[in-house]
Amino acid sequence: MAVQKRFYLLALPALVAASLLAPVAQAQDKFIVMASTTSTEQSGLFKQLLPQFTQASGINVRVVAVGTGQALDMARRGDADVLFVHDQPAEEKFVAEGFGLERKAVMYNDFILVGPKADPAGVRGNNIASALKGIVEKNASFVSRGDKSGTHSAELRQWKLAGVDLGANKPAGYKECGCGMGQALNIGSSTNAYVLTDRGTWLNFKNRGDLAVLVEGDKQLFNQYGVIVVNPAKHPHTKKDFAQVFSDWVVSPKGQEAIASYKIGGEQLFFPNANK
């Protein structure tokens, strides 16, 4: 009995430590992986939004910020629990194929065309199709993300509406960087090129150089974001319940308020529209 008592006394501190650490370990395990677009990350939105969600739910969010196309591919492989992206046709296809449970509208902002303040192609205004035609006619430099992101998909739609067939003959000044929005803007700034960007990333972008907003306000530049929980029927290991908590929260009054309150220099970056 003395030996057993001594063993118990020696083991007691370890047992107490283990019991104290167990809640910490459980809290660390309470997380989801979110595949999202670079615009939500580089605009600074997540720095405001996600801590509020974690405080409300106890669930941490690990963000992988890539182009929307890559984010959708991640989720198809089961490498993410939830998507927060902005390419509605691709999102609806993802759900129709059975990879996502439901797509919910969350918020919107808009795309803008930025370029040199002097506007050598003479495109300033509110007509994106006319602006792109002007860039081609003047052989002006244009930097495309070229990364299958939501912004890249939107850009390709605008070229098509402008009657420019990039597949048949890319304009002389058209360059693809295969990069995120911030890097594309950096290239545009250093080379005085035109760039199509989401407004949120532009407002948070510090290295503007001689770039300015030249085209905005065209209804074709509307930019909608959605959230989708990955379907556990496709990937049983995904954390559907935690992901659903995030999906429900971000479209709730609290989540929508957190989005609306994010501003830079007094200017609102994203506009919640979950219930519209």
UniProtKB/TrEMBL annotation:
Signal sequence segment: 1-27
Entry keyword set: Signal
Residue ranges of coiled coil: none
A Pfam family annotated for this UniProt entry: PBP_like_2
Domain PBP: 26-253
UniProt-listed InterPro entries: ABC-Tungstate_binding, PBP_domain
Keyword Ribosomal protein included in the entry's annotation: no
Matches recorded under PANTHER family: EXTRACELLULAR TUNGSTATE BINDING PROTEIN
Record protein name field: Tungstate transport system substrate-binding protein
Species name: Ottowia thiooxydans
